[in-house]
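Loading example: each entry is read as two labelled lines plus one structure line.
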Amino acid sequence: MARSKYTVGIDFGSESSRAILVDVATGEEVATAIHSYLDGVIDEVLPDSDVPMAPDWALQNPADYLAALEVTIPAVLRLARVSADDIIGIGTSFTSCTLLPVRADGTPLCMLAEWRADPHAWVKLWKHHAAQQEADLVTRAARERAEPWLPLYGGKVSSEWFFPKVLQILREAPQVYAATDRLIEAADWIVWQLTGQERRSACTAGYKALWSSRHGFPSSGYFQALDPRLAGVIDSRMSHRLFPLGARAGGLTADWAQRTGLRPGTAVCVGNVDANASVPAATVVSPGRMVMLMGPSICHMVLGTVERIVEGMCGVVEDGIVPGYYGFEAGQPGLGDIFAWFMEHAVPPLYHEEAAARDFDLHQLLAEKAARLRPGESGLLALDWWNGNRSVLVDAGLTGVLVGASLATRAEEIYRALVEATAFGTRVIIEAFARSGVPIDEIVACGALPQSNPLLMQIYADVTGRELKVAASSNAAALGAAMHAAVAAGKGAGGYDTIVEAAAHMARLRDEVYRPIAEHRALYNRLYAEYVRLYDYFGRGANEVMKALKQIRAQARGEA
Amino acid sequence: MARSKYTVGIDFGSESSRAILVDVATGEEVATAIHSYLDGVIDEVLPDSDVPMAPDWALQNPADYLAALEVTIPAVLRLARVSADDIIGIGTSFTSCTLLPVRADGTPLCMLAEWRADPHAWVKLWKHHAAQQEADLVTRAARERAEPWLPLYGGKVSSEWFFPKVLQILREAPQVYAATDRLIEAADWIVWQLTGQERRSACTAGYKALWSSRHGFPSSGYFQALDPRLAGVIDSRMSHRLFPLGARAGGLTADWAQRTGLRPGTAVCVGNVDANASVPAATVVSPGRMVMLMGPSICHMVLGTVERIVEGMCGVVEDGIVPGYYGFEAGQPGLGDIFAWFMEHAVPPLYHEEAAARDFDLHQLLAEKAARLRPGESGLLALDWWNGNRSVLVDAGLTGVLVGASLATRAEEIYRALVEATAFGTRVIIEAFARSGVPIDEIVACGALPQSNPLLMQIYADVTGRELKVAASSNAAALGAAMHAAVAAGKGAGGYDTIVEAAAHMARLRDEVYRPIAEHRALYNRLYAEYVRLYDYFGRGANEVMKALKQIRAQARGEA
């Protein structure tokens, strides 16, 4: 019997990186190591300085990414007692759009003494939200020119994406822009570090940098209209060559082989995005099954054979999730974040005390109490917009609503109404996909919440009327990266030729299946009809009270 | 110098009675005594029995009222060291509509062994809410016959009122109805006990039993249509003679003189209602100044010179508050109850801990934190319907709404939004009065909340655009009863000829005046416009989601 072969998958998160060492034949996660970033999310003051950050900023230090590689890869090798000879590939997944300005040799500007004190020289993390003005400009310019790519992004460009962040650098720090040779996603930069070659991913370019295989990047005419100084941005600071997921970006450099304990030349896969990498790790490599990555927010991903325009989706990218398919993404900006808000700010002491006495966490306790309620029994209905709405309204200015409160309302009822509201929000997205010819027959959830919260899963099954399954891995993004690494290595090296093959061997689901309960479904259909009515009323312009409240708040604060 | 004269005012509340002994010349409250009812609010099981109560029932034991007299009157005499010779009158105020079935001699049926085990033989407390079906029948029959009195009650008869409760007795316990000689408000029954004479008040009859000086009670034709068995209810079980507030109902009987320590023949005033008695105690004896009694709910009272139909008011009664004027009442069914709900069910432990550490009560702490916010700064807007809406929509089926929630929302912001919502609800009522020709230039608040919560008062001033003053007495209902007692005694005995005179001497306001702050007013005008839009949308039929949620809940519980 041949010796087992392994790949390493490394997921770069917002606070830490996680590396797993995976058996290519079985998908078994043999070892895991986590490294917390020294500088974490930089949102108060720049490292080693007293330069304060403005509100809504969120930066990172690229040195943290490199340290993560140096710490976690040797750690998993050691833990697994596996020889580097048997590691056939390295794959990465990353938050996105997380971008940095670098020199022609890949050196981040923030690593150069002369630029270190300028916040614009650092990595802009995905949740850097200070480029909203720029996002509005990017969208407006596209609308005015009726750019063909705009509908592929739900008609609106998010402030989290590539060009709003680039435009912010240009407008606020033209000197940084001028000193920048390459503007690059961290997902691509880390692959550049490992291989010594700038090999950018079609995935990040497609979802975050407005690129498509058909149109390429937006035209220089568009950028000229947006800001004349940006007219040459693609030719001067980006790359026209983009590589598909699972492609071999190159071999590990001698330097990085030494720093990680891996063999020089080990296949390094093209960079991937965390949510996208999770899809094959959730066994989904064909149309009809939607993957929901359920964390602080929800990312919905589904494959299709034809490019479709779906209302309010985040993007559709050919080969963007699994090569050979159009990868559709949609999202809800609040899930775990809403529950965390509720638990921290709206649950009375008795519940905390009961949870402590029973050695539960509070979330468990609320879920247990809420599970005793029948659908609709609370008399409550919420709009899940505590963090705005992404799909399908694409409106960050929307806010949360609770209807039906009475003197008899209890915390577990509000909790359940919040869970239900997020499920209704997902049903709106599923119906938008279905309406546009992207059918969804089944749902696979991944992330920590689905594994720990059966009530949440059952409510999603009941509300959507779909069977719901849960990915076996609790490190889906890292496992997906390791699976793509096996493809980058190829069958000849002991890996696979396609991600479909890799998924067949390496990805698994948990045993439990959540099936819609007919009686619940009937009740939820009635509630959903009420949800949609409120959704349309508050979300589609009939009553702009949420915007008015923000304007009044600005006036109260003396900002307007 | 003549010796001081005194009156005793006794306010019969839901849980206890409070007697005060008042100096007639100055209004000084010389002594106070409180007696908690032995049986309190009976809502689980009948006293001395295992007869269980149905949901929404709320009964009382009339023996508790008698015990209160026997305990509190001697107590205030003793505490004040005042001779009974100097007590010139006794006045009472009562919850309403609180009614009981009695024999021809005034004996409550529940005091007779043969009826004691029947819940319908007991006092139905104002908040007995089990006669909703009957209330709907009373309203429907009035609508079908276009009864002229219906508009005087906002177009709808409350389940708390007289005839819904009577009809419930008739329908559910015809044997109790048959054994009843007199159906009477507890406010009138207690006066009957003290004087030996059945002298009913025009006030309770007007506000709760559909009586008016112009029309009298509803016609026997109406009652025939409502239920043929009720056709003769007025002639057989009520009284056509009704006495104005401040009238002398009679003199104290020898028996009650002995039981209380007062002199036989002491003037006993006609019965009054707690809220109504508070109005002159708040110095208001003329039109243009609205009294708000702010407790668990709000009662709004204002005087007028002309009978007007005001949208959604609770009632308008000639001489119903101050003789010589039409007394208008409106109400909001939630105020302190909403804050109590919020504090018990939606405030996280840190706030409770901080309050405890600072030796604050939680309400103080929330008010302190909320006071640091500017109007509109929370970005929140609520509809204050946690306990339904009385004026102006007259719809108990409406429920609470919160709009504008975000991950940054904090408890004090929700608290402030709830306070603001109740203030907006009051502004709707004030504007309804003004639209109908009942102007309101100034507001006087009474109750415990106004005395302890300056933030609440300032917000009401800012939202309504009116100056707000606060009654000095924290026992306004009992003081009002004592003032009316001075009128019942008359000038010859050392009292007064009119309540206007009594108010001039006995009623006072606190020094502080809450004046609208222009800048706040401007912000609240914007917020109020948004409130009204939501109010109309959810309250006037555009979106019946609140009713739908209740129907879905009933279905979930297997009730529908």
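Chain B touches chain A through 53 residues (CB under 8 Å).
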